[in-house]
What we know:
By secondary structure, the protein is mainly alpha-helical. It has helices at 2-14, 16-22, 35-39, 42-59, 61-64, 69-89, 95-126, 129-138, 144-162, 164-179, 183-202, 209-216, 229-244, 265-284, 290-311, 337-342, 346-364, 367-379, 381-395, 397-407, 413-425, 435-443, 450-454, 457-474.
Amino acid sequence: MKISWVSAIVFFFSALPVFASGGGGASHAGGGIDITTLATTSMGYFSIFLFVGAYVLVIFEEKIHLRKSKPVLLAAGIIWVLVAITFAQLGDTTHAEEAIRHNLLEYAELFLFLLAAMTYINSMDERHVFQALRTWLVSRGFSLRVIFWVTGLLSFFISPIADNLTTALLMGAVAMAVGGDNRKFVVIACINIVVAANAGGAFSPFGDITTLMVWQKGKVEFIEFFKIFFPSVINWVIPALAMNFALGKEVPQKVEEHYEMKLGAKRIIVLFLLTIITAVSFHNFLHLPPATGMMLGLGYLGFFSFYLKKKEQRVYDVDDNPLAHQADHTKPTFFDLFRKVARAEWDTLIFFYGVILCVGGLSQFGYMALLSNYLYLDLGATTANVSVGILSAILDNIPVMFAVLTMDPSMSHGQWLLVTLTAGVGGSLLSIGSAAGVALMGAARGVYTFGAHLKWTPFIALGYAASIWAHLIINSKVM
């Protein structure tokens, strides 16, 4: 089955030179150079080959155990070497530098935003916030059907704040703890959690990387994301109703778990919410990048971490305290902000760098402009944006959305909301289509699988179609 995905990717990107040869609506890559000329160079073709090859390795990450950041990092560097050589041969020695600096700025904003958010999530995890929530759910003695709906509902409303990946792992742990040996329940609950987390993340800038990119680009304002709230609800509820009938009413054996939140846990939650408010305010009122607001919020946590260190009686002056050099594995672990920074998903953060620079490099050869003409002029915005969601289930929504933003097609506000919705929820069609699905496949290895998810894809696709239909009706005034 995975060979067919690779074939689809190869076909999609190998078709780009065909679009180039058409030359319709040619624009310029810089310096007055026709993109049709750049797109049909050997350097351009080789850049496509590198990107496709890198992404094939990303798809097979679980099989070959090669971190996804490594192939795209290598491809990005080589592609930009090819870009620089190509423009130098054409007599332009400055365009490549200016273009890559633009891409680096875009990555820096995304990186700093995510670094602050990941540090807060790691801090709440270390203070047992998520474990305490799981303890409460597991110890209630709910029936499997109730747990199914509770975990789905919580996934839908937590993911807009904590992101879909973290939410899926948290709720997946609850489902597996309650389900135990009931494989059928665990599979259905995991699918429900993935769909709910992706749907919930679609109507918030903090719910997914794609929505964050759209917000930071200024295509959709913070409050406007809530226009796709009801389409997102429909996207989750329709497949959830179908899966509900496959569950019995049995009550699982009560599991006794005891986790209490550590000192300062509730205050860190409050600081995280305050950080989100700060980032939104920076963007809406001060017209500053949201990342600067998130970094200010990281400063809130930095000062609070100092308070926690003092409160937990951490030993500061190691050099003057010979006892501190002795290995004492019994002493408690005190809160350390920079340990939380170190625990950020660095593979993911570097992967984003590779993706942004790969797509940025391909855009310099003119492929993004040509692809934009084909999708948004020849096919039409609605068809193109619906296709983006389907493609994101195969390729991953991050490079797909960044490609759309790089194309920057001229379309209505409602169409930008539509592509935000489809890119966010389209990944639910396949288990490998979103970070939430991939993470749960790892957590419930051998139980929640690609094949198990695929059995419910028709119902998920029905929810996908219904959510698009709902958006076209509810937001018809901005289409």
